[in-house]
Design brief:
four-stranded antiparallel sheet; mainly beta
Length: 161
């Protein structure tokens, strides 16, 4: 990661008291490649040191604008993958499903679309996290603003996959 410009868009998955995977966004690894790319780093010593794991990916779920945030990826009980993300271009929370382990992705499904825009450039939404409930329904939690709550807050949506 030396010499790469990291953005402030991060997510993590704690694997134990001292081990954690961190998903980062940074300048891409190849000269001339536009935008940022998501990468994965790991610590096994409680954050004293990090090992870069990979930029590699099987397929693109969605190309988002700069300064977007990492998506959430969830393996469903039926074996499919579900990727949830905040689309800051059209101010919506969306998901896509894959039934071939991420080699390809189906169409976008809009989970929420009533974002309250307090000014023209307001697009501060996203940071999706997801879980699947025992009854099979999905829960997405994200950063949002609505007419009844114009200041951003943590919101949730529940739906059947």
């Amino acid at each position: 990661m030396k010499g790469k410009h990291l953005s402030a868009r991060t997510a993590y998955l704690a694997l134990g008291s001292r081990e954690c995977l961190s998903f980062i966004s940074a300048q891409p690894p190849h000269e001339g490649e536009a935008g940022n790319r998501v990468g994965c780093i790991r610590t096994v010593d409680g954050g004293l040191s990090f090992e870069f794991l990979s930029w590699d990916y099987l397929s693109t779920v969605k190309i988002t604008e700069p300064h977007s945030n990492p998506p959430a990826l969830l393996k469903l009980a039926d074996g499919r993958l579900c990727c949830g993300y905040g689309d800051r271009i059209d101010r919506r929370i969306k998901v896509k499903y894959s039934d071939d382990d991420g080699h390809s992705w189906g169409p976008e499904v809009i989970i929420r679309h009533d974002y309250y825009q307090c000014h023209e450039s307001d697009r501060d939404l996203g940071y999706v996290s997801m879980v699947q409930r025992p009854d099979g329904k999905l829960v997405a939690i994200y950063y949002w603003a609505a007419a009844e709550h114009p200041q951003q807050y943590i919101a949730a949506s529940i739906w059947g996959p």
